[in-house]
Amino acid sequence: MQKDNTLQQGSLINTLFSIAWPIIMANILQTAYQLIDTFWLGRLGANAVAAVSISFPILFLVLSLGAGLTLAGTVIISQYKGANNQKMIDFSASQTVLIIFFISIFLAILGYFSASPLMNLVGAGPEILADSVTYFKVSSWGFVFLFMFFVFQSLMRGIGNVLLPMYIVLGTVLLNLFLDPIFIFGFGSIPGYGVAGAAIASVITQGLSALVGMIILFRGKRGIRIRLAHMKPQFKWVKRMFQLGIPASLEQSSRAAAMTVMVMLVTSFGSEVVAAYGIGARILSLVIVPALGLAIATTTLVGQQVGAGNIKGAEKVGDLSVKIAFFGLTGVGLMLFVFAEHLTAFFVPNDPQVIKDGAQFIRIMAPSFGLLGVQQVLNGLFNGTRFTQASLLISVFSLWMVRFPLAFVMSQRTDLAFEGIWWAFPLSNLVAALVAFIYYKTGYWKIRTLRHRGDWLGAKTS
């Protein structure tokens, strides 16, 4: 059985962190888009924050339909990297770029023309409806750019080149920091577009990052070279990618859909509670970034171990990732518990009720962040073995059979009111972590990986 070169070159923990920290930083920077928007829009008032908050889950839902396929790119590329098959790395990358490009165009058109009915569906009130629709329409035009950068980022992660995407994201976030107030409030001859200005600034920076990423891939000097000659669809290979990517897409879109229906529950309590939920959700999205970064690093390393035939090495990666995620994110959660009110006041400084409700949301969620991390890294391990169905089933169970029913019952049938929605988050995190960990310890994923590894790596270009 072939051993993995990565583990021979240094300790596992150093290797894992060397891949994880740039991914974490890149994800933090990408999350900063929403945080920067929230910061500046908070200066317009709670309604501006609520308009973006109510549209964000739908945006995330649309993005998630294509995001799973970019994860498939990471998994496939990492396994061919472990098998030292450069020809299939380049071919797989070319096919992935082509597929994601056409999907992004379809979703951009769909998003633009469905903006109004979607905002009405989630219950946007008359005071925020127009702004939420405009924000969603403008953001839809950025789907193509966003997906093209996501696919570049995923392919680079598959071969372990994680620093380059991070530097590109850093540059675009810094640019967005300056463009946001210009387009929101206006500057010189540039008029202020209000809520829509935040979306305009994001689309501009997303376009620049996509352009840079595609230039790097076509030049082929960073470990992957895509070619137009490899972009003729090969349906046998595309079928394999969809078999891997569709469960990952459904897993992410089910998470986004759960966020959407949670917003529908929140909207029944008024715009101030929506704003508090939006701030708490953004803090959650920032906190979950280390877990997602560690999960993607786990996917990359596990994929390379599987490609090299080292199943024991894949299990070592999983064991270490679980420990780091649980203890690390539990510590982060305790810090956020202490500073919850200060964080909420940073975004909406002039609304005491929003500050109080948002801080309470953060304090209720925070102690369970370590459990959330455990679920995420184990999903990353299952994805790295091409067992994306496991991640899908765990997520659907925790979100749709635990979180949403609990949120509905506790908010509509008890005296907790909207705080019942807050409590559904830690309870579902606990259940999901237990289910994922127990399943991981059964070892079925190892048997399945050994059974199918030869079939996966036997794909050929025509």
TrEMBL record:
Entry's transmembrane regions: 12-36, 48-77, 97-115, 135-152, 164-187, 193-218, 256-277, 283-303, 324-348, 360-378, 390-409, 421-440
Keyword Nucleotide-binding: no
BP-aspect Gene Ontology terms: monoatomic ion transport
Gene Ontology MF terms: antiporter activity; xenobiotic transmembrane transporter activity
Source superkingdom: Bacteria
Name the record gives this protein: Multidrug-efflux transporter
Record InterPro entries: MATE_fam (IPR002528), MATE_MdtK (IPR050222), MdtK-like (IPR048279)
Keywords recorded for this protein, A-Z: Antiport, Cell membrane, Ion transport, Membrane, Transmembrane, Transmembrane helix, Transport
UniProt key word Transmembrane helix: yes
Subcellular locations according to the entry: Cell membrane
NCBIfam families (alphabetical): matE
Native organism: Algoriphagus chordae
GO cellular component terms listed in the entry, alphabetical order: plasma membrane
Membrane-related topology note: Multi-pass membrane protein
